Amino acid sequence: MSDSFFSRSGALHRRTFLRVAGASAATASLVLAGCSDPAPAPIAANPNLLTLTDGDVGLLNYLYLVKQVQVAFYQKVIGALPGDFSDAEKLSFNDLRDHELVHRETLRFLLGTNAYDVLLQQPLPLDFSSLNLATRAGVLTAAQQLEDLSVAAYAGSLRLLAAVPTAALLAKIASTEARHAAFVRDLRTPGSFAGTDVVVNAGALQSVSLAKTPTQVIDETKAFFLPIVISPILLPTV
Q: Which residues form the domain of 210?
């Protein structure tokens, strides 16, 4: 073995060999990395997208959003009710606003730290420019739309809640919302109370309030939230 390369004068010593081998391996790794596909760029979160979570928390946040629309609506119109509102009607709208405030705070309490807006610096901006709030007829039409929609939202979501006590509590709110809807409808058309557009009149569902899914309700209220887009994709459906 005396003529072995590693035994000759000037041959690579073990440490030198290891350094060269290590450098070669590192160089090979860099070359291979350079030949591979680049890592995909991260997708930035959309600041204007609010995706509701799944389960009861998502459903409660959904109803909380609907309630915030109602509160903001009544607060807006009460500040500038058209002149053709009677004094009694003005007082009634104050009562409607106060009821909605109680409902909103009840939902906020149920959600606790799970409320979607718990970390927001300010509430979501709500835009009611799509509604005609300059006349009594316009305000009553909008109020009926929102009250009917709220009733339909509860009718369509209470069966999806897993927690029975929560569903029982929200059923009481739904009952109050139905009375609101009937009251506003009666202001528009005295003696009407309800209509076939909001009450099912067929078979076993006789006189049951029309139900709407979260997707349907959010679609009907999306103009109020712009530029924020509410996504119900994770909410339970069955």
A: 49-231
